[in-house]
Write a structure and sequence with these properties.
Layout (H helix, E strand, L loop, with lengths): L1 E12 L2 E13 L4 E5 L6 H8 L7 E6 L2 E2 L7 H9 E5 L10 H11 L4 H14 L15 H13 L5 E5 L7 H18 L2 E5 L3 H5 L3 E6 L2 E5 L2
Parallel strand pairs: 3-8, 3-9, 6-7, 7-8
Antiparallel strand pairs: 1-2, 1-4, 4-5, 9-10
Helix pairs in contact: 3-4, 3-5, 4-5, 5-6
The protein binds adenosine-5'-triphosphate and magnesium ion (MG).
The site of magnesium ion has 3 residues, from helix 1.
């Protein structure tokens, strides 16, 4: 389903070139859960940005269901990202001016689903993450754990093929992280989405199908 092939990516910094990815390759089947580890600055977020086509590689390819998304021009890259990718971030990235339900519904509206269908699907997804009854709450009335639940609902409501999570428990206390991890994994598995989850959390990595470590610009298999 997902093929990451020989990705190279460098950034220019004050006249110098800093190579971040130097031949990163990996593949994941539909519904597979891959944990990605690596020290700070090793390029984990850079890799996710290439998979989601927010950024383009200097060389190499990202293929999703056979389509080379890394070679798409704009606005096709944006359409791919909207329709086929869901994101969960460390700092939730919810829209503070929208209430809980509206944050989830927005993803459907961006994909052309509106009206009662969008309302019902959003309500059902909010309930699946345990937030039934909180639909009208403002984002800042939700706790950190509740905000991350809502972010998970937003990430999955449009049934993306790919779920990308960048340190999704990095800003949560340990007890909350222990509830959020199984929620992400079980909802991704139920949806049949391929999950790439960047984490420093060994317990989280241990629950993935495989763990890959980003080291010297490449993805290396790591014992679970
Ligand atoms: N847009 C950019 N412009 C210049 N340099 C960048 C850019 N994005 C990332 N980098 C550099 O690329 C390297 C990898 O960054 P990246 O954010 O991918 O690391 P990371 O593994 O996600 O780290 P962390 O665990 O701290 O989140 C860093 O040295 C960073 O400064
Ligand atoms: Mg990062």
């Amino acid at each position: 389903m997902l093929e990451i092939q020989d990705l190279h990516k460098s950034f220019r910094e004050g006249g110098r070139t800093h190579a971040v990815l130097e031949g990163a390759s990996a593949a994941a089947a539909a519904g597979e859960v891959l944990a990605i580890t690596g020290r700070s600055g090793s390029g984990k977020s850079t890799l996710l940005n290439l998979v989601s086509a927010i950024d383009t590689p200097d060389a190499g390819a990202v293929r999703v269901a056979g389509a080379e998304v890394s070679a798409l021009p704009e606005p096709a890259r944006t359409l791919y990202r909207r329709a086929q990718v869901g994101f969960v971030y460390q700092f939730f990235n919810l829209i503070p001016t929208l209430n809980a339900l509206e944050n989830v519904r927005l993803m459907l509206e961006l994909n052309g689903v509106g009206g009662a269908a969008a309302r019902e699907r959003s309500r059902a997804m909010v309930a699946r993450v345990g937030l039934a009854g909180r639909e009208s709450s403002a984002v800042d009335q939700l706790s950190g754990g509740e905000q991350q639940r809502l972010a998970i609902a937003r990430a999955l409501v449009h049934a993306p093929r790919l779920l990308l999570a960048d340190e999704p428990t990095g800003n949560l206390d340990e007890a909350t992280a222990r509830e959020i991890v199984p929620l992400i994994l079980s909802l991704a598995r139920d949806a049949g989405a391929t999950l790439l989850i960047v984490t420093h959390d060994a317990a989280l990595a241990a629950r993935a199908d495989r763990t890959l470590e980003l080291r010297a610009g490449r993805l290396e298999p790591r014992a679970p």
